[in-house]
Fold this sequence. Notes:
With 125 residues, this protein is mainly alpha-helical. The protein has one domain. It has helices spanning 6-14, 19-113, and strands spanning 117-119, 122-124. It has a two-stranded antiparallel ribbon. The longest helix is centred in the middle third of the chain and has 95 residues, at 19-113. The protein is rod-shaped. 0% of the residues are buried. The mean pLDDT is 90.
Amino acid sequence: xxxxxxxxxxxxxxxxxxxxxxxxxxxxxxxxxxxxxxxxxxxxxxxxxxxxxxxxxxxxxxxxxxxxxxxxxxxxxxxxxxxxxxxxxxxxxxxxxxxxxxxxxxxxxxxxxxxxxxxxxxxxx
Length: 125
């Protein structure tokens, strides 16, 4: 067993915390706690913001699906209109050709019969 001498007590006291060191530790821990509170608050705000962004992103995805469906529908409609237009152009060309042939037939017949043909302000003999 060690002797209880002044040097022994001096050595033992050196390892004990002082009021000043305890106050400094308390102050440091208070600063750490405030920093953590601030960090937690920032994290909570960030989580709320990210949740809000995620909800809006989901809504945008749904809106984009609707837009895509609408564009596809319009594309289908435009394809049908184009096909009808092409069909109409073909039909019109066919009718012009038929009318031209009929005029070629009717004009000589009209001359033989003695009928004057008029079209759009013109008179044909």
